[in-house]
Amino acid sequence: MPWDVASVAAELLRCEDEGVDRPPFTDEWPELDLETGYRIQDLNLEARLARGETLVGVKLGLTSRAKQERMGVHVPLVAWLTDAMLLAAGDPVPQSRLIHPRIEPEIVFVLEDRLAGPGVSCASAMAAVGSVWGGAEVIDSRYRDFRFQAGDVVADNASSGAFVTGPVGLPPTALNLALEAALVEVDGQVVDSATGAAVQGHPGEALALAANELAKRGHALEPGWIVLTGGMTDAVPAPPGASIAIHFSNLGSIFINGG
Ligand code: OOG
Ligand code: MG
User: Fold this and answer.
1) Looking at ligand 1, which atom is closest to the CA of residue 141?
2) CA 251 to chain centre
3) Where is the Fumarylacetoacetase-like C-terminal domain (predicted)?
4) Is there an atom of ligand 1 within 6 Å of 133 CB?
5) pTM value?
6) Which regions of the chain does DSSP assign to beta strands (E)?
7) According to a count of CB atoms within 10 Å of the terminal CB, is the N or C end of the chain lower?
């Protein structure tokens, strides 16, 4: 066995810290399945906390058909968010610490109440939400060309990189999230769009999924946590100089590198 949980975890953090990519581990270690991937992910959360980062919430990945088909992985994922990943409005893409960033529009929740699975439904999940925001996630895979299997990407904290939330936070009762639209513009051209329904039929379903999935690993979602519910559209490349805007129908606009 060329790899194990500890050595994959260490290698992924090294790639992240040094800004280098690599082939997926499943090329050499096909037994790296989802369960093993989550053990690696949890080990690296401990490493992130040990070096002073704070846990601020979770992200879902591959919750829309657009993302699943593009990445070739057909199962939704959960991963950790820390304060080191938070961008402020107007911050540029942190190119120097990222390998090949891509940007995707997401509906973001901030939790008011604790949410613990199993058995969480969309309605009970939404009842725990304090506010809803538009968001942009800057994903960055440690795998060359974003080529990976499910176990690889789970181990890699679901390609976490950075994220930013938009200017408008609304109570969840103020809008129909299945209809909330996001329009993605690159250099002034509209390149993609979707509504919240692209995310599991309703982003609240993704939140429920996170609570139920984390329950299997002995965790609950805590009050104040940020939850990124997953890319609504395919992600767009964000090389240096690309100017990207995401316009939500009710949740405002996010401008990256000038928009
Ligand atoms: C995996 C991360 C997926 C999302 O929102 O679907 C993700 C990837 O696409 O590299 O963050
Ligand atoms: Mg995402």
Assistant:
1) 10
2) 18
3) 75-253
4) no
5) 0.98
6) 55-61, 77-82, 102-111, 129-139, 162-170, 181-186, 189-195, 226-228, 236-237, 244-248, 253-256
7) N
Cα–Cα distance between 256 and 164 in angstroms, integer? Answer: 9
Q: Which of 118, 59, 46 is nearest to 85 (CA)?
A: 59
User: CA angle, 122 as apex, 206 and 88 as ends, to 5°?
Assistant: 45
Q: Ligand 2 mean position to 2 CA, how many Å?
A: 30
- Looking at every residue in the chain, the average pLDDT score rounds to 97
| Domain layout of the chain by residue ranges | 5-256
Q: Is the CB of 180 inside a 6 Å radius of any atom of ligand 1?
A: no
* pLDDT tens profile 16-63: 999 999 999 999 999 999 999 999 999 999 999 999 999 999 999 999
Question: What spacing in Å lies between the alpha carbon of 104 and ligand 2's midpoint?
Answer: 6
Residue type, 225: W
Model confidence at 1, pLDDT cuts 50, 70, 90, reads low
CATH number given to 5-256: 3.90.850.10
Atom of ligand 1 nearest to the CA of 71: 9
Question: Whole-angstrom Cα distance, residue 221 to residue 195?
Answer: 25
CA distance 237 to 232: 15
Determine whether the shortest distance from the Cβ of 159 to ligand 1 is under 6 A. yes
Characterize the bridge pairing of strands 226-228 and 55-61.
parallel
Give residue 1 CA to ligand 2 midpoint distance, Å: 31
- Cα 220 to chain center, whole Å? 17
Instruction: For residue 238, give both structure tokens.
Output: 């964000």
Verify whether ligand 1 is closer than 6 Å to residue 156 (CB atom): no
Q: Is the CB of 67 under 6 A from ligand 1?
A: yes
Model ipTM value: 0.99
Give the Cα separation of 154 and 171 in Å (integer). 31
